[in-house]
Amino acid sequence: MLDFEKIKSIEGWLTKNEALFLFENAKKVAAKNAIVEIGSWKGRSTTCLCIGSQYGKNAKVYAIDPHVGSSEHQRQFGKVDTFEDFLKNIHSYGVAEVVEPIRDSSLNVAKVFDKQVGFIFIDGAHEYEAVKNDFESWFPKLSNGGVVAFHDAWWFGGVRFLTYLLLMTSNNVKNPKAADTIISFEKAPHNHFIDRFYNALFIPYHFFISGFWGSIKMYLFGIAKSPQ
How far apart are CA 222 and CA 213, in angstroms? Predict the structure, then answer.
């Protein structure tokens, strides 16, 4: 099973509840489908997805990241290159055979990616346009019944606005769920009135309860930095 006490030593931003969410969703993905991660940093969330796949049906994990940091990372850390640390971590945790790292932008990869996707985890740049572009590039590749998940959907306004907008207006999403700062929903060929009603009810629940407390948990327990 997933040993979060071990995985949390990898630098990154992920709570135990979020790690288990990724693990459980990766377990469910059929071997013929892909697991796509947009934004890997140094491999904390990647490792959770890979271990879930190993306990599940061994679906391939495609970890897409140029490894130069998102815009907010560059503002915080300056020039970065996380690729060597990423490779070291996936080898150290025994998941290198499950994952295919792709060092490029998600938009470039989406243009040539031809596999059906069972689960998408979007955790790249958090500005509205960036998240919207990631979603619009990859959601068409997601199988019906597949899950798309957004990290930091309470902390960052761009992610929160897009997810709430989709829940309010899209005919193709249903069954929203929250795991601390993650919002997810299933892809549907066409949702029904009851789905849209539930989607709308989920928004205040997430904003005032699950997202708020999830963000506190992230701040207190979910952030790991590399030793100096």
Answer: 12
In a domain, 107, yes or no: yes
Give the pairing of strands 117-122 and 182-187.
Answer: unpaired
* 145 torsion bin: left (phi>0), alpha (psi -120 to 50), beta (else): left
pLDDT over 70 at 227, yes or no? no
Q: How confident is the model at residue 19 (pLDDT cuts 50, 70, 90)?
A: very high
The pTM assigned to this predicted structure is 0.93
Range(s) of the domain holding residue 61: 15-216
In angstroms, the CA 52 to CA 103 distance is: 22
- The pair of three-digit structure tokens given for residue 34, joined into one six-digit string: 């892909």
CATH of the domain at 159: 3.40.50.150
Q: DSSP 3-state assignment of 42?
A: coil
Q: What is the dihedral of CA 127, 132, 133, 137, to 10 degrees?
A: 150
Q: Which residue reads 């998940």 in tokens? A: 149
Alpha-carbon span 184 to 151, nearest angstrom: 9
Residue 120 CB contacts under 8 Å (≥ 6 apart), including other chains: 36, 37, 38, 138, 139, 142, 146, 147, 148, 149
Total count of domains within the chain: 1
Please tell me the distance from the alpha carbon of residue 99 to that of residue 194, in angstroms, as a whole number: 38
